């Protein structure tokens, strides 16, 4: 069973279909579309804030917009994609209440959720292929926040302005 199929089985078993928001610049457009199609196929609700083509656009606008959607509680998690994963992650993290994490490995995804209660996963269309991004995001979605000693640290993060 592939990781994609495994992700699907996990979500169906838990009956956990989520509202997810995605955003990218031109360099993240292709990977965002691949993730979006996969997540729709799994049954999740998708809100795409753009960009909507490979025409050059600036990542701050889209990182901030998807961050606002998550911070407002209109989506449970966000996915932010630019070329490197760096710039759009910085933009999302400018929004109060957002904990956006760079995800380049499955372990990053697991730790970002378990320790940091991340609510946005950031991927780089030029550094991470779709199958690894899917595998990592399936882990991101199915990993709960551990709380405990991490809860106070995340509360401290939320206090920072
Ligand atoms: C766009 O060329 C590229 O700079 C952008 O997608 C991102 O990698 C920035 O951090």
Question: Can you describe what's shown?
Answer:
- It is a single chain.
- This protein is an alpha/beta fold and 161 residues long.
- The chain has one domain: Ribose 5-phosphate Isomerase B, Chain: A, CATH 3.40.1400.10.
- It is built from 7 helices and 5 strands, in the order H-E-H-E-H-E-H-E-H-E-H-H.
- It has helices at 3-14, 29-42, 59-71, 87-93, 106-114, 130-142, 149-159; strands at residues 19-24, 45-48, 77-82, 100-102, 120-124.
- The chain has a 5-stranded parallel beta sheet with strand order 2-1-3-5-4, with helices on both faces.
- Helix 5 packs parallel to helix 6 (130-142).
- It is globular.
- D-ribose binds at residues 25, 27, 59, 82-84, 86-87.
The average pLDDT value, as a whole number, equals: 93
CATH superfamily: Sugar-phosphate isomerase, RpiB/LacA/LacB
Number of separate strands: 5
- What ranges have pLDDT less than 50 throughout 5 or more consecutive residues? none
CATH domain topology: Ribose 5-phosphate Isomerase B, Chain: A
* Inertia-based shape: globular
Largest sheet: 5 strands, parallel
Kindly report the spatial arrangement of strands forming the biggest sheet.
Answer: 2-1-3-5-4
In CATH terms, what is the architecture?
3-Layer(aba) Sandwich
**Share of residues in strands:** 5-15%
Radius of gyration from the CA trace?
14 Å
Number of helices: 7
Report the CATH C-level class: Alpha Beta
Helix content: 40-55%
Output the structural class. Answer: alpha/beta
Number of domains: 1
């Amino acid at each position: 069973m592939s990781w994609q199929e495994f992700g699907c089985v996990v979500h169906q078993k838990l009956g956990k279909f989520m509202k997810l928001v995605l955003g990218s610049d031109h360099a993240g457009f292709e990977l965002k579309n691949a993730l979006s199609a996969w997540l729709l196929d799994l049954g999740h609700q998708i809100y795409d804030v753009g960009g909507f083509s490979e025409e050059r656009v600036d990542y701050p606008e889209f990182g901030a917009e998807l961050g606002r959607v998550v911070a407002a509680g209109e989506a449970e998690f966000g996915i932010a994609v630019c070329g490197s994963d760096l710039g759009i992650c910085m933009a999302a993290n400018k929004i109060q209440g957002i904990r956006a994490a760079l995800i380049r490995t499955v372990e990053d995804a697991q730790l970002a959720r378990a320790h940091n209660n991340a609510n946005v996963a950031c991927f780089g269309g030029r550094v991470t292929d779709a199958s690894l991004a899917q595998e990592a995001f399936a882990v991101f979605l199915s990993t709960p926040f551990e709380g405990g000693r991490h809860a106070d640290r995340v509360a401290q993060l939320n206090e920072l302005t």
